[in-house]
């Protein structure tokens, strides 16, 4: 049986960082103030480092621009994308907390059907703190939710679940469509509030969107590399997709869970579909090769850590996807660089820290 | 003849889109009345549209509704997706008095042929209201058709006899203690229309769509969904859900005796390839032409009783069906529609616990199905089921 906790959700304010990539400003934080103010923010400034990003008063944050990234990682900075929100994964790397919540700067507080403001962060924490159930689909969705449970026929030996590594939230208003769909359906808005959280079954891949995402950095952090996108790269808008496919393969291998569904945020800005089409163009064709690749990946039994799994994945990317396009050889290289950088900035506990300088405020 | 006025053209246009208009209260009364008249003439008055007009508070409309004797709920606009010749509704009668059940379902069932299978263990005669195209099968019919067979059709398993004798392409089956439920907008859910929509639109088992069923109105495939997978595959099984008295095992019923399902999840989704699920027979529909051979009562608990929690036949059936669908490239959907399941049995779970063997059964059954690999040469459902049974021994 699932025992639902009626206790209030812990704030986890000292265990969670909020990572926000931005190129413009952070005015959207005003709306989130009641929910975000207790937390530490890590802001990753993309684009021109000489520009000053205005952060609303009263938030506790550290901000990194391209100069900081170059300074802290040296030559390894090549793995962090430029002119693309993929740069946010630098924030994951420098964080020292157990949990990460990442959100885009055009995402606002949504309302549930009763008109109440949705505290997205609280729901993500609930999702991460309760187990996942990837081995058998529960038809009443998340059995640990108050008011739900495992249905008849659910094996008792599977009712403990596994730790949740990722909580994938959704979006009302502007849906996360690709460019062709945006062009065909420019007026479509997501108005349907689906009141469910569910575990994505083991062996099933999904398109992970980075707009409203939380994860357990200690369980899966190194897999959340958002790839080489943006300036100088032949592809864009596939950063979160790439991270999602890598993450899902690794969570499946390590027996961890991925949830999707609540919470909703309100996505306010529809990006330009013509610009998006240019960015996504290669991705639309490449994903036809990528999906079979990820679906057939098998990781060796001795890959028992996320880093080991990820390095093995990088090897297979080079071997099997290099022939799709030379880009994938570069990507495989940067996947390795990412893990090296991650381990440097996040030495195993007890070891002397070797980070290139303290985080600056 | 004078050309139509701009106002008239506007009202005609509003009429065309009446199903999508959310609020008419800003219109002056005389326009609301004119629109109402046009709606009636066009035959576009549904439960939702009637509510829309009544919400304006216009007295003439309220008077007109009374004078014309328009009642709520009214027979819904007939779903254009399915025809009577395609669908059988199969009801297992485990209680004798089905009057409330059939009266409540009348607006949705009255078009279709209904197969009622009486639990062979039940002595009392069935009470069914008139006005349905309905045939009852009893113990003597079962014995007459099958003679001595190893299949035990008593209790909830009697419905499978209904699947056997049906000649239609689609079958919808609902437990006799379930009634129609209202959705979050307050409209009564047409269970037939929703199951048929699920079965007639593709399923997407190869990749999970985070906005759930991409074929529903107002939604689509999300960014990152491979285009080659957007055609989907044919959906063979539609698993609905239950408000109020959810389908729990007896242990959960006892421990959470006051818990009722009050969360209406407005989604249909495909259960991914390789993922197994517990299919509940309480509210289910399937393509009988194709999947029929896989819909049989294979697993019977030793002390199977008349309560839903005493059974696992539908769970076993669902696992078979899912393995077969996965193997042959068909889809299984879960989610809407909901039915309202009554409390009738809820208090009796404690009695069943004493003899209940359900604790360990699924722990043995599930690994079998998860590891079951059907031969590549099994290309029909028949072959798959035979292949599965071979593996069983």
UniProtKB/TrEMBL annotation, chain A:
One of its GO terms (biological process) is plant-type cell wall organization or biogenesis. One of its GO terms (cellular component) is cytosol. GO terms for molecular function: UDP-arabinopyranose mutase activity. Glycans are attached at residue 152. Its main location: Golgi. The keyword Glycoprotein applies. It comes from the Eukaryota. Keywords: Cell wall biogenesis/degradation, Glycoprotein, Golgi apparatus, Isomerase. The record marks 152, 159 as: Required for activity. It catalyses: UDP-beta-L-arabinofuranose = UDP-beta-L-arabinopyranose. It is found in: Golgi apparatus. Its EC number is 5.4.99.30. Belongs to the RGP family. This is UDP-arabinopyranose mutase. It comes from Miscanthus lutarioriparius.
From TrEMBL, chain B:
Keywords: Cell wall biogenesis/degradation, Golgi apparatus. It comes from the Eukaryota. The keyword Secreted does not apply. GO terms for biological process: cell wall organization; UDP-L-arabinose metabolic process. One of its GO terms (cellular component) is cytosol. GO terms for molecular function: UDP-arabinopyranose mutase activity. It is found in: Golgi apparatus. Its main location: Golgi. Pfam families: RGP. InterPro entries: RGP_fam. The keyword Metal-binding does not apply. Belongs to the RGP family. This is UDP-arabinopyranose mutase 5.
């Amino acid at each position: 049986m699932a025992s639902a906790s009626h206790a209030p959700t812990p704030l986890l304010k000292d265990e969670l960082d909020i990572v926000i990539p931005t190129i413009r400003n952070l005015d959207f934080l005003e709306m989130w103030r009641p929910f975000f103010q207790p937390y530490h923010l890590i802001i990753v400034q993309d684009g021109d480092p000489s520009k000053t990003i205005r952060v609303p008063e009263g938030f506790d944050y550290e901000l990194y621009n391209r100069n900081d990234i170059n300074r802290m990682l040296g030559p390894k900075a090549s793995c962090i994308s430029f002119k693309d929100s993929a740069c946010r994964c630098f924030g994951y790397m420098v964080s020292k907390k157990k949990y990460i919540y990442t959100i885009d700067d055009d995402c606002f507080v949504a309302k549930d059907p009763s008109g109440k403001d949705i505290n997205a962060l609280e729901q993500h924490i609930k999702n991460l703190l309760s187990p996942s159930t990837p081995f058998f689909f529960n038809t009443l969705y998340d059995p640990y939710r108050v008011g739900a449970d495992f249905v008849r026929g659910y094996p008792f030996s599977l009712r403990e679940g596994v730790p949740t590594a990722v909580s994938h939230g959704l979006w009302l208003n502007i849906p996360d469509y690709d460019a062709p769909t945006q062009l065909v359906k420019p007026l479509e808005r997501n108005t349907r509030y689906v009141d469910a959280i569910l575990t994505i079954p083991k062996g099933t891949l999904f398109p992970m969107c980075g707009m409203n995402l939380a994860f357990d950095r200690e369980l899966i952090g190194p897999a959340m590399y958002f790839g080489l996108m943006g300036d100088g790269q032949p592809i864009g808008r596939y950063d979160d997709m790439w991270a999602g496919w890598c993450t899902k393969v690794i969570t499946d291998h390590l027996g961890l869970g991925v949830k999707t569904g609540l919470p909703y945020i309100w996505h306010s800005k529809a990006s330009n579909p013509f610009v998006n089409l240019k960015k996504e163009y290669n991705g639309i064709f490449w994903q036809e090769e990528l999906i079979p690749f990820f679906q057939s990946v098998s990781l060796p039994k001795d890959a028992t850590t996320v880093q080991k799994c990820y390095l093995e994945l990088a090897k297979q990317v080079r071997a099997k996807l290099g022939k799709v396009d030379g880009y994938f050889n570069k990507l495989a290289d940067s996947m390795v660089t990412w893990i090296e950088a991650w381990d440097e900035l996040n030495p195993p506990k007890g070891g002397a820290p070797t980070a290139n300088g303290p985080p600056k405020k | 003849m004078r050309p139509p006025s701009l106002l008239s053209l506007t009202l005609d246009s509003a009429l065309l889109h009446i199903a999508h208009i959310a609020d008419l209260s800003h219109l002056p009364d005389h326009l609301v009345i004119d629109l109402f008249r046009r709606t009636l003439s066009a035959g576009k008055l549904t439960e939702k549209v009637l509510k829309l007009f009544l919400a304006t508070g216009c007295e003439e409309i309220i008077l007109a509704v009374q004078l014309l004797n328009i009642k709520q709920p009214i027979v819904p606009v007939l779903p254009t997706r399915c025809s009577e010749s395609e669908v059988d509704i199969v009801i297992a009668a485990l209680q004798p008095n089905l009057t409330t059940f059939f009266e409540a379902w009348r607006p949705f069932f009255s078009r279709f042929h209904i197969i009622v299978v009486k639990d062979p263990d039940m002595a009392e005669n069935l009470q069914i209201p008139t006005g349905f195209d309905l045939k009852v099968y009893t113990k003597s019919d079962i014995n007459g058709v099958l003679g001595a067979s190893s299949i035990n059709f008593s209790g909830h398993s009697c419905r499978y006899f209904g699947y056997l004798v049906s000649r239609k392409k689609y079958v919808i089956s609902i437990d006799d203690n379930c009634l129609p439920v209202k959705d979050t907008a307050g409209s009564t859910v047409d269970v037939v229309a929703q199951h048929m929509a699920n079965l007639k639109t593709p399923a997407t088992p190869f990749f999970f769509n985070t906005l759930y069923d991409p074929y529903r109105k107002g939604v689509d495939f999300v960014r990152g969904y491979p285009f080659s997978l957007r055609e989907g595959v044919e959906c063979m099984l539609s698993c609905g859900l239950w408000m109020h008295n959810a389908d729990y095992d007896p242990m959960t019923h006892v421990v959470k005796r006051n818990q009722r399902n009050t969360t209406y999840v407005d989604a249909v989704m495909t259960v991914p390839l390789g993922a197994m699920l517990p299919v509940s027979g309480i509210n289910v529909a399937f393509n009988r032409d194709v999947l029929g051979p896989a819909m049989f009562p294979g697993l019977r608990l030793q002390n199977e009783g008349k309560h839903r929690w005493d059974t696992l036949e539908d769970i076993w059936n669902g696992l078979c069906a899912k393995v077969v669908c996965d193997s042959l490239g068909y889809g299984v959907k879960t989610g809407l529609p909901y039915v309202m399941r009554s409390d009738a049995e809820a208090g009796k779970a404690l009695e069943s616990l004493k003899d209940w063997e359900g604790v360990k059964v699924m722990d043995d059954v599930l690994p079998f199905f998860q590891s079951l690999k059907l031969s590549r040469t099994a290309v029909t459902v028949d072959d798959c089921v035979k292949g599965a049974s071979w593996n069983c021994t």
